[in-house]
Write a structure and sequence with these properties.
Distance between the termini: 55 Å
Structural class: alpha/beta
Strand order of the largest sheet: 12-27-28-29-25-26-13
Mean pLDDT: 91
Radius of gyration: 31 Å
Number of helices: 21
Strand content: 15-25%
């Protein structure tokens, strides 16, 4: 096997195998299909990078398709933001498409399914449908409308489309198998009545297709060869295939290729919250200034903080493509931006915590302009002039009256080099009434060839520009802020995640434009914020020169302890583990486990939890843990559906008193 083949990820292996089995390379097509119901965050960059990366690798088109099937939650604002973010990352889509472009085709195919006896209009209440759908361990039963005549179904569906019925009166369901072991295959909903204007189609439609019906058929219409999605969609693959195989009979000549769905692990990042609901809470409670706050994991927040498209793309490449969920250390993302800016960011001098330095033997009215290298990593970057005078600012931390031999910065009686300028020697200090040093007096030497160990950055007071510097740090102080049983994720907010500093910078920055990035020498990387105006420079700290959090991490041997591993495992996996032991625990420990499950459930999606509805009846502990977690999701706004109602009803009939009690609470 060649080295190139060995380096392929599992999706590329699938594609290479398909090509070897006869798929023409010019038939490869990919897509990134966001729902326009919010802003993209760092988690989305993996899906973006995989699809567009494959497009680049195979010189294949990649569509940007908005799966806009829910007018209640979708807005043009989100469409615009998503397009801006994808373009900023440096990706070019072949076509900008919308599932709403296919509403007429989807409707016509649905009519054909009715004619073929593969779909029917159901007029029951949601409660009745839930009862008939069965449970993960009990097959469903056919409803009273399942065998309506084709003529009646066609009439009702057309009248649904024409707006004759109210929301909730009727739905269109696929006619598959009410006894199917996969509950998603038990006659899933295809259309519902929703009398809301769509951001693109206006009031043309009052019935809207469900995601599972729309998504796969949109892939098919676009002749997508490989439909790539995250692991929570794996249980949906069987339904995806059923739908596409049935519509194939209607369009095989025009649309000969059936797409293949494959799933990859989502991106989970330490010290980071990915839940949109929790990110919204940070905004609403004023913890951050908005969705583009530089501490937020949104793409717009990262852009404002100073991250580059290249650094994010490098990060996604290093993360790779996996089949199993894992947690990536945020320090890898920080490493990528450091590495990128080290090559590209001009070096400048800025002093964030200034103390005045007076060179006593330098002429009062003299000033000089020294050459300063813009970037030692880039020979083409050239140089600039920086002014020098009798009085300078240096960092307060760069001076000590008395210090050990290991302190290589300025101290009384010792010499250091001023970057790009002279060597100075500390002579004495001036203090105020409180004993605070207000001035450091030095002498300078014109012998710049002398060897000294320390080099300091500085700015000339006479020429310095005032600047507002916003020093950002990680928003959370814990690796997994939403995985603790006894604490809210808000308890881990870093109180020092933002410090606003009045600083001084060299005059070359007078014309710095919004978005420009610099290395403040010896301090870190900074960029010009959106709030910056002529005469009022504002800089954001992107990242320090070194990982300041590394020293706070446990030693390697500590990281291998069992109690540490729980904090980096996906929450759903921890819930399952707690469930396995639940019924064997004494009452006090059950209460502690329940509290932990409730906490973990805050970071679990319905897609994570739903497969556990199929847990065998004998595994009561897992079913109890699932019920507890479901209660949290419902409390946080998860809509009840047939699967949920069936799971609850089955639990209420169980012999396990604890499970029955938990089911009764919801």
């Amino acid at each position: 096997m060649s080295e190139e083949t060995k380096s392929l990820n599992f999706i590329e292996h699938i594609i290479e195998e398909d090509l070897a089995n006869g798929l023409s390379k010019d038939k490869l097509r990919f897509r990134f299909p966001p729902e326009p119901n919010g802003y993209l965050h760092i988690g989305h960059t993996k899906a973006i990078g995989i699809s567009f990366g494959l497009g680049e690798k195979y010189n294949a088109p990649v569509n940007l398709r908005f799966d806009d099937t829910n007018p209640a939650k979708e807005e043009q604002e989100y469409v615009d933001a998503i397009k801006r973010d994808v373009a900023w990352l440096g990706y070019t889509w072949a076509n900008e498409l919308y599932s709403s472009d296919y509403f007429e085709t989807l409707y016509n195919w649905a009519v054909q399914l009715i004619k073929d006896g593969k779909a029917y209009v159901d007029s029951q209440s949601s409660e009745a449908m839930a009862e008939q759908k069965g449970t993960p361990t009990q097959p469903g039963v056919d409803g009273p409308y399942r065998n309506r005549s084709i003529a009646e179904n066609l009439d009702l569906f057309e009248r649904m489309k024409n707006g004759e019925f109210d929301e909730g009166e009727h739905i269109l369901r696929a006619k598959i198998d009410m006894q199917h072991p996969n509950m998603l295959m038990r006659d899933p909903i295809m259309y519902r009545i929703l009398k809301k204007d769509h951001h693109r189609t206006g009031d043309t439609w009052c019935i809207y297709p469900m995601y599972d019906w729309t998504h796969g058929e949109s892939d098919y219409i676009e002749q997508i060869s490989h439909s790539l999605c995250s692991l929570e969609f794996k249980p949906h693959r069987e339904l995806y295939d059923w739908f596409k195989e049935h519509v194939y009979d209607y369009a095989a000549n025009e649309l000969p290729m059936l797409p293949k769905q494959r799933e990859f692990a989502r991106l989970n990042l330490s010290y980071t919250i990915m839940s949109k609901r929790k990110l919204l809470k940070l905004v609403q409670e004023g913890i951050v200034s908005g969705w583009d706050d530089p501490r937020m994991p949104t793409i717009s927040g990262l852009r404002r903080r100073g991250y580059t498209p290249n650094s994010i793309r490098q990060f996604i490449e290093k993360v790779g493509v996996a089949k199993r969920e894992n947690v990536i250390d945020v320090s890898l993302l920080e490493f990528c931006i450091r590495e990128d800016l080290n090559k590209t960011a001009p070096r400048v001098m800025a002093v964030l915590d200034p103390v005045k330095l007076v060179i006593t033997n330098y002429p009062e009215d003299k000033e000089e302009w020294f050459d300063a290298e813009n970037n030692p990593e880039d020979d083409s970057a050239g140089s600039r002039k920086v002014p020098f005078s009798k009085t300078l600012y240096i960092e307060r931390a760069d001076f000590k009256e008395e210090a050990s031999s290991k302190f290589f910065r300025l101290k009384l009686g010792s010499e250091v080099r001023l970057k790009n300028a002279y060597i100075i020697k500390g002579e004495h200090v001036v203090k105020d009434d409180q004993g605070q040093i207000t001035e450091i007096h030095c002498t300078y030497s014109t012998d710049t060839e002398k060897k000294v160990k320390g080099t300091l950055h500085w700015v000339s007071i006479k020429h310095a520009l005032k600047a507002e510097v916003r020093e950002y740090d990680r928003l959370f102080m814990d690796e997994a802020p939403d995985s603790h049983q006894d604490k809210d994720f808000m308890d881990f907010i870093n109180p020092n995640s933002l410090k606003v500093i009045n600083a001084f910078v060299e005059p070359s920055l007078a014309d710095a434009a919004i978005g420009d990035r610099f290395q403040f020498q010896r301090l870190g990387y900074f960029n010009v914020d959106n709030d910056s105006k002529p005469g009022h420079l504002v800089f954001n700290k992107t990242v320090g020169l070194r990982d300041s959090w590394a020293k706070q991490k446990p030693k390697p041997q500590q990281q291998n302890k069992p109690q540490q591993s729980q904090h980096i495992r996906p929450a759903i996996e921890v819930i399952k583990q707690l469930g396995k032991k639940y019924t064997n625990l004494p009452e006090a420990k059950q209460e502690r486990s329940k509290a932990e499950i409730i906490k973990l459930a805050e970071s679990v999606s319905y897609e994570d939890l739903q497969p556990l509805f199929n847990t065998a009846a004998k595994k009561a502990g897992t079913r109890i843990a699932t019920m507890i977690a479901l209660g949290v999701l419902l409390k946080n706004g998860q809509e009840r559906n047939a699967d949920i109602e069936a799971f609850i009803e089955k639990a209420l009939e169980d012999k396990n008193d604890i499970l029955v009690a938990e089911a009764k609470t919801i």
